[in-house]
Amino acid sequence: MAEQRPMTPDELQQHPEYNHTIWDLKPSQQGKIAVAKNRGGPINIAYEVHGHGDRHIVCIMGLGGMKYAWQRLTRDLAHTKGDQYSMLVLDNRGIGESDKPLMRYSTSEMAQDVIEVLDSLGWTGKRELHLIGVSMGGMIAQEMAFKIPHRICTLSLVSTAPSIFNTSGFIENLRNRANLFIPKPLPQQIENVKRNLFSDSWLSLPDSLEHVVEPFPTNGDRFAANELWKRTHPAYFPKANFLLQAVAAGWHYKSPADLKKIAEEVGKRRIMVVHGTKDRMISFPHGVVLWRGLEKGEGKTGREYVGMEVEEDVWEEGEVEKRFVRGQGHVLPIEMREEFKGWVEGLVERGVRLNEEEG
C-alpha cells in the first residue's frame, strides 16, 4: 500500500476540520495574572483552570507550545473527571496570549512565573501540586521542584533533560520553526517539525482524535493543520520570542547535585521520568542522564549514546518511576494518550497515598 501523501497547506485550510483543531473546552476559571513585578515585569501570564477537583494538576508546555496543546489530557482528566481534578494550563512568557517581553529568558525565571501564578490562585498548600512538564516545560518543572519542593506532591518530567548536550534535533527544530539560516518552503518546514516531534509510524496512522466535522486523513495531517494555524497567527507565535524561549532551554542546567537534592526533597517515589527511545528533539540519552541524576545522583557517565537502549541497566527499575518507551518520539502525551493518562493518574494516586502515610 502506497504511503499517504501529506496534505498541502491549501488542502489543510480547506479541510472542514481545519478550524476545529483546537477544542472549545470551557474552563472553570481563566484570565491573566501579572508576575515578575520585581523581575523586569510586570508580565501578564494567560492561564486557564479546568475542573474543580481537589487533585491540582499543573501542566507546563515546551518550546513554542501554547496551553491548548494539553487539550487531550485536559479533556480526559479535568472534564471527564472534573470532580476529581483541577488542571492549570498556561502560556509561558513569549507565547500565545501571555505577554511577550524582549528580554533574556531563563527556565528559572519562567519557573518563578508559574509559581507566582500558583500563589495568586491560592494553590500554596504543602504537597498539593501534581506537576507535569514536557520538553522545555520539563526544564521549568525541574526549576520549580528545586525552588518549592515541599509544595509538590508528584513530579512528571516528560521528554526533557537536565541540560542539552546533544542538540542536533533541538537545533533542527529551532531552524524549522523559526525559519532560520536556510529558509525552506512552508510545506517542508512543517514536514520537518512533524518528523522531529513524532514517530513516523504514528504520523502515518489514520487521524485518531475526536473530530467535530470529519477526521483528517492522518495524524500527521492533523498536526500539520494545527501548526499551520499557529503560523498564520503571528501575534501568538512571534519569531523573536520563540528564540528567547529557545535560549532559555539551551542554557538550562541542573547538576547531579541539584537533581539529587530535588529527589531527596520532593521524594523519589513521587517522581516519574518519561522518554521515548526514538526522540529526535531531545534524544533518549538525555532522559537516561536525568533519571540517573534523580535516582543515583550521577551525572553524565560516558555510557550515554544514541542506541544505548540495548544496555540492560537502562531498563532496571528504581525508586524514581521510569517510563522509557521503545520506538516512541518526543510528544508521548499525544502519541500514547491513553497510556500517558494512566501513568499520570497512577502517580497522582501514589502521591495522595504518600501524603496520607506521611501525615
From TrEMBL:
InterPro entries: AB_hydrolase, AB_hydrolase_1, AB_hydrolase_fold
Top-rank taxon: Eukaryota
Keyword entries, A-Z: Hydrolase
Molecular functions per Gene Ontology: hydrolase activity
Gene3D superfamilies: alpha/beta hydrolase (3.40.50.1820)
Ranges where the AB hydrolase-1 domain occurs: 56-291
Signal peptide (residue range): none
Protein name: Alpha/beta hydrolase-like protein
Originating organism: Lophiostoma macrostomum CBS 122681
